[in-house]
Amino acid sequence: MSDVLFMWLRTGNYPYYQGHVEEAARRLGLDMGAFGSCMGAQETVDLLRASGEEATLREVGGTPAFFFNGARPVCGGADPKCEGNLPYELVVQNIDRHLAGR
Fold it and tell me: What is the tens place of the pLDDT at every residue in 37-60?
């Protein structure tokens, strides 16, 4: 499911609208009754709402978003937010930086 949603995002669609998510589930042949029950469950609604609120609080603008011990990665350069698909070397540098500070 995530592969379909990310593919749609790359092609200019906005997969997180309910209709797009339901269409992806249909295309994948999911049991739409079970899918609808899961998506409509209060637990799911609460989890999605909390995730959205945390993303807003942390000023996350997209996925993926990395945090190391609750802090944004240090990337250098002009973009202090450093979002998106980080190069492996940058992930390792940030992990090493946080391990050194223990």
Answer: 999 999 999 998 999 899 999 888
Distance CA 65, CA 87 (A): 13
CA quadruple 27, 55, 69, 96: dihedral sign? positive
Token pair belonging to 8: 């749609």
Residue whose C-alpha is closest to residue 19's, from 7, 33, 31, 5 = 5
Q: How far is CA 102 from the centre of its chain?
A: 28
| pLDDT band (50, 70, 90) for residue 36 | very high
Q: Are 87 and 66 in contact (CB under 8 A)?
A: no
pLDDT, tens only, 62-91: 778 888 888 888 887 665 667 778 889 889
d(CA 50, CA 32): 24
Give the rounded distance of the alpha carbon of 6 from its chain centre: 10
The domain segmentation of the chain, as residue ranges, is 1-57, 60-102
